[in-house]
Design brief:
The protein is 46% helix and 5% strand. It has 18 helices and five strands.
């Protein structure tokens, strides 16, 4: 169910936040010039401050993270006719550069999160609280959100400066970049601290806030990126053993607003309709403006086209395909288009009165993902024919209307890895995990260059090179921090 209490608080905080569209990136402050967060004194001050950090996640996932990360994969066409210069299109064909505005927005907003988290963490022990449990919980949320920001910056951009307290602009400017490993390790420590401080569950009025299990789950995902399966296993096992989560009975229920914050979801980005500037704007932007249907009376400006490669990767009878992807559509002029496909995954729920005001949340971590990561860990420990890893994978397949896999079909550890990567692609399409999965499994170069060689993707016009496993540091950051002892561009950009 929706949490109107928390979302209403976010709406009040949003009044003080400048929201930039993907086309309005104008002279944003670099990290070397950001001002430290406000001064907080009371329990209510800190509660509002943390709510404001969640609101930044709304902004990030409304436009920037979602489209750019999904675009950076074989799920999205490399050639986006009519949108060739949009950030997600440049990411799709590996031609992004240090001036790509949507990537700059991702960098900016994650640093804004870190700035605000540092303000809370630095000041909260000296604040006036009537409830010490509340103090611990709020501190845990700040650690979780800071860890999440550093995790995202680390795997997307490589190593970044590790700023763990409020500093003045000169101190920030002379904090050198760390390595990617150091950045991820720092995020891991934040998640660990968060898990110690956060509750297992929240009250009904505060659903949607990070919990102990959200911190453990995202930390497990970080360890999966590092191939540290030994560290990931107990975290995943903790979530599974908690008894607080279960896979949704139907795949579609994972993406309907009436099932938001259900036991399928370990952590979601919260949205709410009602013309409060809290709506999910990503949903309509995935369809062309000219597309008209009951589900989408009006489309958005993005119209991100799905690849034929993704569509054809679904097995016959897979219930997930037609729930996720629209193939064949008639535009407002009555013209039928049988070629371009787009995502409709989040459009099946309540229809808003304003097209940018959908209520459906966006998933960060689903329990299905926890289960599949655990199966992956079991296989990395050692292939077991028809073992527990098979059982978990088959739970997901059967829900999708597919038959179970057996050791006759999947005969080795490596074959199971391939089956898992294939299953994750269709299960999590439009959940912004494909690029992450390709990187962490060392399949990015092979998969993407094979994809770009397809005729409909340009027959090799575009190519992924090794250095594009991470994005460029924004040029505006380099301009303000020209001293290469502290800030430098990633190689070959």
């Amino acid at each position: 169910m929706k949490n109107t209490n928390i979302l209403t608080k976010i709406s009040l905080v949003l009044i003080s936040i400048i929201i930039f569209s993907c086309k309005d990136f104008l002279n944003k402050e670099p990290i070397s010039d950001y001002t430290t967060g406000g001064f907080y004194e009371t329990q209510d001050d800190f509660s509002s401050a943390v709510t404001g950090i969640y609101s930044i996640l709304q902004t990030l996932n409304n436009e920037f993270v979602t489209s750019n990360l999904e675009g950076r994969s074989d799920n999205i066409k490399a050639i986006q006719t009519g949108h060739e210069n949009d950030g997600y299109a440049l990411c799709s064909n590996f031609t992004e550069n240090a001036s790509t505005s949507t990537l700059n927005n991702i960098w900016y907003y994650y640093w804004k999160m870190i700035d605000r988290c540092n303000a809370v963490i630095d000041q909260i022990d000296g604040g006036t609280f009537t409830d010490e449990t509340r103090r611990s919980n709020l501190k845990g949320e700040a650690y979780f959100l800071r860890g999440y920001a550093y995790f995202q910056l680390g795997w997307l951009f490589g190593g970044v400066p590790l700023i763990d307290e409020q500093k003045n602009p000169i101190e920030i400017k002379t904090t050198a970049r760390s390595t990617q490993t150091e950045t991820l390790d720092f995020a891991a420590k934040d998640f660990t601290k968060a898990a110690e401080l956060l509750p297992e569950t929240w009250s009904a009025s505060e659903l949607g806030k990070a919990t102990k299990y959200a911190a453990q789950g995202v930390l497990a995902r970080l360890y999966m990126f590092q191939k540290n399966y030994t560290a990931a296993k107990p975290l995943l096992k903790s979530i599974i053993s908690s008894g607080k989560y279960q896979m949704a009975t139907k795949y579609g229920d994972c993406f309907i607003d009436t099932y938001d914050n259900s036991s399928e979801h370990v952590f979601q980005i919260q949205y709410m309709s009602g013309n409060l500037n809290l709506g999910n704007k990503f949903v309509p932007f995935e369809v062309p403006e000219t597309f008209r249907s009951t589900m989408f009376p009006t489309g958005g400006s993005l119209g991100m086209y799905v690849s034929e490669d993704l569509y054809s990767s679904y097995e016959a009878g897979d219930l997930r395909r037609d729930f996720t992807i629209q193939k064949g559509w008639t535009n407002s002029a009555g013209e039928f288009n049988s070629v371009n496909m787009f995502y409709i995954k989040y459009g099946h729920g309540t229809l808003p009165s304003v097209k940018t005001d959908y209520a459906v949340n966006l998933p960060v971590l689903r329990y299905t993902d926890v289960r599949l990561m655990y199966a992956e860990v079991l296989n990395e420990e050692g292939y077991v024919a028809n073992g527990e890893a098979f059982s978990i994978l088959n739970e997901v397949r059967v829900r999708a209307g597919l038959s179970a896999l057996t050791s006759v079909m999947v005969t080795t550890q490596d074959a199971f890895r391939k089956a898992m990567l294939k299953e994750r692609r269709v299960e999590f399409a439009c959940e912004f995990l494909r690029w992450f999965d390709l990187l962490r499994t060392d399949n990015a170069m092979t998969v993407m260059n094979s994809f770009l060689a397809r005729a409909e993707e340009g027959s090799g016009k575009y190519k992924m090179l090794e250095y594009r496993k991470i994005f460029p540091i924004p040029q505006y950051e380099l301009d303000v921090n020209p001293d290469t002892k502290y800030m430098w561009q990633n190689p070959e950009y």
